[in-house]
Design goal:
Rossmann fold; 6 helices; alpha/beta; 13 strands; 2 domains; binds flavin-adenine dinucleotide
Length: 248
């Protein structure tokens, strides 16, 4: 290709090597496999190169490199062209190359694995679920957890509460979370959307704490408190602790 050199990365050697200094406009072609794809992307970032993707054909038109890419299972061919002088592509079949580069394999990473054991009661099969929503904060979720320990229940959460980092994803109740059928479900700071309620069995008795008297959760609840859950939950914990102390 006139004015351009095409260098093919053909193998990954045991010794780490850098890409040699490049003279003039260059196309680096990596093999289109998992390692080649990863290396091509990393090299493009490090060198500030332009990425053409997985190509099927390469040519020079004027002072630009043009390439074809197959899309939609080969039904469509996309033509892409370069705007930079260093271009990176991957290919299943290597084009005609002016030279070859052997890159060193990446140094292995040492990964440490830690098994995290969830000591809390699982949502599945729990007779009581204490669930929190977007209306709660970290401190009130901690109160829910305290209450769960006291009544031997499980903590549940809405999707937004999980997105806020207030509970782990294993605690999500609802359409895209878990389906639970406890005897009692306390919904605190939860509005009662269909997506959340879809995760609660119809025989479950719902109780709600919400600061908005118009919240739809009250329409499905057997009993409820209109108020700030951040104030009510600690009071509830104290009340349950007192009751349990009387019983023991
Ligand atoms: C495809 C799809 C799947 C989904 N799957 C799920 C799912 O599996 N589970 C799920 O939960 N959501 C799911 N969602 C999200 C769902 O649509 C709602 O956004 C979500 O259920 C609302 O959660 P929330 O009740 O915590 O928040 P909000 O609707 O924002 O309600 C917060 C409530 O807290 C009350 N509140 C605020 N402050 C206080 C306070 N201090 N004290 C007491 N109350 C307070 C407010 O009055 C309000 O009623 C899904 C959405 C889509 C599109």
């Amino acid at each position: 290709m006139i004015g351009w050199q095409v260098l093919c990365v053909t193998a990954l050697g045991p010794e780490p090597t850098a890409i040699p200094p490049l003279s003039g406009p260059t196309v680096l072609v990596f093999p289109a496999d998992a390692t080649g794809d990863a290396l091509a992307g990393a090299t493009a970032v490090v060198c500030g190169a332009e990425v053409l993707g997985r190509i099927t054909h390469l040519s020079v038109v004027g002072d630009r490199v043009e390439a074809s890419r197959s899309s939609h299972g080969g039904r469509i061919t996309i033509r892409v062209s370069s705007t930079k002088n260093l271009v990176i592509a991957t290919a299943n079949t290597m084009p005609a190359c002016d030279g070859e580069i052997t890159l060193g394999a990446a140094s292995p990473l040492t990964l440490e694995r830690e098994v995290i054991v969830d000591q809390a009661i699982a949502l599945e099969g729990a007779p009581i679920v204490l669930a929190g929503g977007r209306g709660l904060d970290e401190a009130s979720f901690a109160q829910l957890e305290k209450l769960a320990v006291l009544v031997k229940g499980a903590v549940g959460a809405s999707l937004p509460a999980i997105d806020l980092g207030l509970a782990s994803v294993s605690r999500q109740v609802g359409q895209s979370g878990k389906f639970v059928t406890p005897r009692i479900y306390l919904a605190a700071g939860l509005s009662g959307t269909p997506q959340h309620l879809a995760g609660i069995g119809v025989a479950t008795r719902l109780l709600a704490i919400n600061s908005d008297a118009e919240a739809s959760i009250f329409r499905y609840s057997e009993s409820g408190v209109v108020g700030d859950a951040r104030i009510i939950l600690p009071k509830l914990v104290t009340a349950v602790e007192r009751k349990l102390a009387q019983c023991s």
